[in-house]
Every structure is written in C-alpha cells, then in structure tokens.
Design a protein that fits this description.
Translation Initiation Factor IF3; alpha+beta; four-stranded mixed β-sheet
Length: 75
Amino acid sequence: MAERYVNCKGLQCPGPLVQVAREARGAATGDILVVEATDIGFKKDVAAWAGKTGNELLTLEEADGVITVRIRVSR
C-alpha cells in the first residue's frame, strides 16, 4: 500500500475530480490518495464520486481554504 499526493489546488470543476479519477486508475488496490483542492464544489463532488466508484472516502477536512481528502482505492 502506497500513499499518493494529488495537488488539485487552483483547478476548477471538473478539474480536481478528473485528476482524482486519473490517479485512482493508476493506483493499486489499497493505495491512499491524499488530495488537496481549493474548489469548494470538490467536497460534494468527491463524496459522490467515491460512492459511485466504490472507493472509500476516509477523511474530508477543510482549513485555510484548502480541502484535503484521503481516499482508499478499491477495485
């Protein structure tokens, strides 16, 4: 299991979700994606994406305008 950092800061919808999906496709089962984004819509979008794709949203935090999520990749 590896941890992969995905920098989506400054991207607007759908950019952050496109990056997350791309990283998830290249990751191994059990890998953790640590994603930072600044688009406020990302919170809702990433939760919906995780539920739809079966990936596990472990944490979602926001501080100083940066949204940080941790996602466990599932296949």
